[in-house]
């Protein structure tokens, strides 16, 4: 990818509909040409456990980023998630 940004193989957003920061991320990125899986921690309680185990914190929104070599990253903070996804879409 241009700009030195590594392309992930999978993106998943841990979120729920009552979270205003989650809504902000969804609204800011809905028009981006990215496939982002929604993992709702209220509708699927096991997702909350995944989030804590993988990312170390239970807060949402959290973007799970998986790469082809098996590495993964957990990105918290709505502004950081929006910035990352916009840069990824533009790369």
Polypeptide structure, described:
The protein is 37% helix and 22% strand. With 91 residues, it is an alpha+beta fold. It has a single domain, classed as Glutaredoxin (3-Layer(aba) Sandwich), CATH 3.40.30. The protein has a four-stranded mixed β-sheet, sandwiched between helices. It is globular, with a radius of gyration of 13 Å. The model has no long low-confidence stretch (mean pLDDT 93). It comes from Spiribacter salilacus. InterPro entries: Glutathione_S-Trfase_N, Thioredoxin-like_sf.
The CATH superfamily bears the name Glutaredoxin
Low-confidence stretches: none
Strand fraction: 15-25%
How many strands?
Answer: 4
Counted up, domains total 1
Mean pLDDT: 93
Oligomer: single chain
CATH topology label: Glutaredoxin
CATH architecture descriptor name: 3-Layer(aba) Sandwich
Main features:
91 residues; 3 helices; 22% strand; alpha+beta; four-stranded mixed beta sheet; Glutaredoxin
